[in-house]
Predict the structure.
Amino acid sequence: MTTSADSDDIEEGLMFQPKFDASGLVTCVATDAGSGEVLMVAHMNDEALRKTIASGEAWYFSRSRKSLWRKGESSGHTQRVVEMRLDCDQDAIWIRVEQAGAACHTGRRSCFYRKVDAGESGARLSFVDADRLFDPAKVYR
């Protein structure tokens, strides 16, 4: 159980105390340092977080592959971290990055290339800013 003193320490203190979920992960949102555009959402485990801080390059943990990966290790489309922030209860990370090329494994600049439109028969998706910067079939063999 979290006490008020614990909460004050987490929310107002200067101790770096990231809270990982039951799977040992913390959610990370990456945005373009210049434009503010949301590029991607991924997860970090303790090792990925430590490597990101130490190297200045974005490292993540793949839930599907169950492995650590450095952004751009296959595609060459890297993320240099300009600034890292934690939210108020230290269970989410925001990194502002200089993105080289595409952030999305689909070859697009951002993973957020579809918008949700409300319709009479329910929500529908439409493409926005969906041009591909590379062919994923050629990059990820």
The mean pLDDT is 94. Helices lie at 4-12, 46-55, 136-139.
